[in-house]
Amino acid sequence: MPNSHYFSKKPSSKDERGKIVTMLRGRKYSFITSRGVFSAKRVDTGTRVLVENMHIPEDGDFLDLGCGLGIIGIVAASMMPELHVHLTDVNTRAVKLTRLNVQRAELSNCEVYEGYLYEALGDQKFDAIISNPPVSAGMHNVVHPMISGAYERLNPDGILQMVIQSNKGGKMLAGFFDDIFGEHEVVAKKSGYRVLSSCKC
Ligand SMILES: C[S@@+](CC[C@H](N)C(=O)[O-])C[C@H]1O[C@@H](n2cnc3c(N)ncnc32)[C@H](O)[C@@H]1O
Known about the structure:
single chain, alpha/beta, Rossmann fold, seven-stranded mixed beta sheet, two-stranded antiparallel sheet, 5 helices, 9 strands, binds S-adenosylmethionine
């Protein structure tokens, strides 16, 4: 069926809502979800490994790239009230749900955008860019431009952090990080996933 992926601009499935209630970094969160978005029934294992291990700056600008329901950005914004969190996704339904989830969490330090990769963000620069990237959308077509775009949009000393399944693209992602940033660090390894980080230092 065309247009039926979680990364479709307009999902063709019915917008049937559900709720995920979960603990992340020692706090309880609830997220409204729906069909046609990534990991609609539970927090994805890769997302959880990333959220539990990501470095969150105390202030500055933080981008959740490919935000889905907004889980990564909402945790960062809840933990660091001085941080300005930007969340963007190509999927219209995901963006709608992120707006709703930000509102339900009563966060005033979040801005939500809809667009392909960085297109909706103008010339905004960031201190951290974080993503559970859409590997199924294409490593070369989508994930590589996410990484090269991150280098252009990070402030000096800004960091890029991404999670990947170790045996499904782990080596390729590490190669992309090295090509663009010169090196990478593996900051966590858990449940078959690894979190990679590079600094624009
Ligand atoms: C693996 S999911 C992660 C979602 C969410 N961050 C999480 O961890 O639950 C990747 C997300 O990237 C979005 N995406 C796919 N292609 C994109 C693109 N070209 N530009 C922006 N977002 C995209 C998808 O719609 C999806 O929400």
